[in-house]
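Lesson 9: reading folded outputs for more than one chain in a single document. The general rule is that every protein is listed as its sequence immediately followed by its structure tokens, and records are never interleaved. Here is the first one.
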Amino acid sequence: MRRVALKIAYLGTEYYGFQRQPDLPTVEGEMLSALKEVGVVDDINKCGFGVAGRTDRGVHALGNVITFLTEEEVIINQINDALPKSIRVLAQTKVPLRFKARYALNRHYRYLLPLIPGDSPLDFDKMVEASKLFKGTHDFSNFSKKSERNPVRTIDEIKLIKEQDLIQFDVVGESFLWNMVRKMVSILMMVGRGELPSEIIDELFNPDKDLCIMPMPPEGLILMDITYSGIKFHEDPYAVKTFKSFLKGEYLKNQTIALSQKEMLKGLKD
């Protein structure tokens, strides 16, 4: 018996999050079904299945990690043939039997905020300065559920990039709370609009401060990668190529829909 770790990617749009739910399509449900179908896993309740990040409904991933025990040879493209095209295994590696996927060296999340003409302008420089306050170790109780047992988290890196039609937020840390990244982006957006002062971030690290933060929509969030000390994944070129092709097709389809909606908006009077 050996333990295998797979690096997986998926578009989360059509799934009700990662974690299995009765009678609802989820990434975990599809993965377990595929592993069982190809004979890599016999009993899903006894294979020691684990995952690094249980992403929410609508959240995407390029580098989530799952792990399980097996006696069979793992063939990436055999598993991919049993999966929907929106979920792909991109890489694999053998790991120690006691390896736990959730204990990562760091996680990299990226949030994409579209800039829509006519919306309230954002002070990007002010957002960049405010984002620096997130670096370091803080109590993130106000950025998740108040019932979190351990709300203290460390942000190793946060970077904002402004392009013509969007702002890209990159956040790196060992671990994150539920909704934490989306709420961080929400606060930075309110700072950029002038709705909140930058100093509010330091205040929010006080768990006694009570401010309801609405998270940004999940569709803009991508789990870009997860890394581990001493663990190297072996990428499958064909799996990467086919997923790229699928993403290009989805992008063109959605771009056409967006252009049609934009034209319809132009045709409507204020």
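And here is the second record, again sequence then tokens.
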Amino acid sequence: LKTVDGVIHLEDLPEGRYYVMETQAPVGYIKNTAKEYFDIRIEENGTQVKPVVNVRNYKASVELKKTDKNGNGLSGAVFSLLNSEGSVLRTNLSVNAQGVLKVNNLSPGTYELLETKAPTGYLLNRVGLVFTIPEMVEGAPKDFNLGNYMNYKGAARLYKTDAAKNPLQGAVFKVVDENGTTVQESLVSGADGRVHALNLSP
């Protein structure tokens, strides 16, 4: 049975209980596999009661949480949405103040979210997040949770040695940014001569 302007008329059904179930969704929508029950009954005067049954179709929404390595929400990131062929469908999808990105109105298919701008002070995460919207769901789909998508800060390591490449312990360093501002100090080389500078912004 096919809809005409979104409506199907069913005639001459005997009294009883029935259900309708969608077998093919409109283009771009998720197939609703829920069974919608209805009753056909005859009034005492012989009039047949014809109920109206609504079968809704939906598109999907996805949500991800932008975090640092400790799970804390990060705002300020921007994403693009690509289809399975790599064509850009949407740009400038911004993470909110709580570090959440929500993308609505998605048809069934495979997509990729690609970070185009990192939160301030963090490295760009160049690993695309691929996900699939299913072709069928029973009833209304809930938001699909894509989990956490992390950003990291950088790190640097150097070795303090003498001319013979022997490690030197106790040398003290500081890290200065491109504007001449000290961002870390009192970094001391260990017994192996190593100095680690962590949590560096780009």
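What the second record shows: The mean pLDDT is 90.
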